[in-house]
């Protein structure tokens, strides 16, 4: 195990270019720090070897855990890591080494490539704890497709909105609303994370939104440190099922918040995606990408209209390991999120 020194980041960026698009999440985490372009600071990069690493794990710097008002290891819902490999066996070996990750707490593996890296991650999680809840079983049917937007192919979009609506950016005061509406949301960690990334005096990550006359965000999309656009939403009635099986064999766990029907079909989602993509390209980024959940045809159509193209042979999945305070009682949850509502992206 080696922790990549800061002076090697640029070399690592050059190396990762040959493995794009699957290396894009790790690439942009490094890029943000190197170029001071929307960085997620407080991260370190563990490699299996140097030079020419075959596996990389981006994890929070443990020594920074209590250095700020918030826990910088928590992103969105819990402790979050990003992984990449050109050889899943090397990734599995790296994750299996002592002191790589804190297996006594919840860990979200963000945007894991399917099927190779996902299988490696799940294999290690299974060895670290019991298989408490299972879904997907490593199949690609529950993985998100990935689409790419580039500045040279981004299609112009009119920013005209009806009277009473405005286009702008999200602020920390919108964190509670987004937390309630996001499929992965619903806890205080999500709210604190959003307050941090949307605060212009803190990270000030780019975002775009359409607001109604009351100032409520009725459509929005956010930037993530991995270089993608995510947490997209347009107000509508929502039914989201998280299919999984517990120990008793029960199926389901539906998640069904209610949103406003009157905002559908107005092109708001296309506008916010165009505005955010334009911000990213104007800052010097050469591409961005979005995850499209299975069956989300409305979002796919929106991105096609903006000039996005499918990235072949690259799918992503989010793996949640359920840690336990008692190390003898840990469990692994490879959760599958199916977004039946077409107003959501990942």
Textual characterization of the structure:
By secondary structure, the chain is of the alpha+beta class. It has helices at residues 9-17, 24-35, 88-96, 116-128, 175-181, 188-198, 268-282, 297-305; strands spanning 2-3, 43-47, 55-60, 74-75, 78-85, 107-114, 130-131, 144-149, 166-168, 207-211, 217-223, 229-234, 240-241, 254-255, 288-292, 309-322, 331-333. Strands 1, 2, 3, 4, 5, 6, 7, 8, 15, 16 and 17 form an 11-stranded mixed β-sheet that branches. The chain has a 4-stranded antiparallel β-sheet with strand order 9-10-11-12, sandwiched between helices. Helix 1 (9-17) runs antiparallel to helix 2 (24-35), helix 3 runs parallel beside helix 4 (116-128) and helix 5 crosses helix 6. The longest helix has 15 residues, at 268-282. The radius of gyration is 19 Å and the shape is globular. Mean pLDDT is 82; it is low at 130-139, 237-260 and 327-346.
């Amino acid at each position: 195990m080696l922790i990549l020194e800061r002076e090697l980041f640029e070399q690592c960026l050059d190396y990762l270019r040959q493995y794009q698009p699957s290396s894009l999440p790790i690439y942009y985490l490094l890029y943000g720090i190197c170029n001071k372009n929307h960085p997620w600071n407080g991260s370190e990069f563990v490699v299996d070897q140097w030079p020419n690493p075959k596996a990389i794990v981006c994890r929070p710097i443990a020594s920074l855990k209590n250095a700020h008002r918030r826990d910088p290891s928590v992103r969105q819902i819990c402790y979050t890591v990003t992984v990449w490999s050109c050889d899943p066996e090397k990734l599995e070996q790296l994750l299996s080494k002592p002191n790589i990750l804190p297996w006594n707490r919840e860990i979200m593996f963000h945007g894991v490539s399917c099927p190779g890296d996902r299988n490696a991650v799940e294999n290690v999680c299974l060895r670290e704890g019991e298989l408490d809840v299972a879904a997907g079983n490593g199949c690609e049917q529950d993985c998100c497709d990935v689409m790419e937007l580039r500045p040279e192919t981004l299609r112009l979009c009119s920013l005209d909105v009806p009277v009473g609506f405005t286009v702008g950016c999200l602020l920390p005061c919108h964190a509670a609303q987004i937390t309630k509406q996001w499929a992965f949301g619903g806890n205080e960690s999500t709210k604190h994370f959003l307050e941090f990334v949307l605060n212009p005096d803190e990270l000030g990550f780019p975002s775009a939104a359409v607001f109604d006359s009351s100032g409520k965000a009725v459509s929005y999309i956010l930037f993530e440190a991995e270089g993608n656009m995510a947490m997209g939403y347009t107000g509508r009635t929502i039914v989201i099922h998280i299919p999984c099986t517990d120990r008793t064999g029960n199926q389901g766990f539906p998640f069904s918040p209610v949103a406003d029907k009157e905002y559908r079909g107005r092109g708001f989602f296309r506008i916010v995606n165009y505005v955010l993509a334009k911000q990213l390209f104007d800052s010097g980024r050469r591409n961005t990408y979005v995850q499209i959940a299975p069956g989300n045809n409305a979002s796919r159509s929106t991105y096609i209209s903006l000039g996005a193209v499918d990235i072949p042979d690259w799918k992503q999945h989010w793996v949640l390991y359920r840690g336990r305070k008692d190390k003898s009682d840990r469990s692994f949850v490879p959760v599958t999120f199916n977004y039946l509502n077409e107003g959501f992206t990942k």
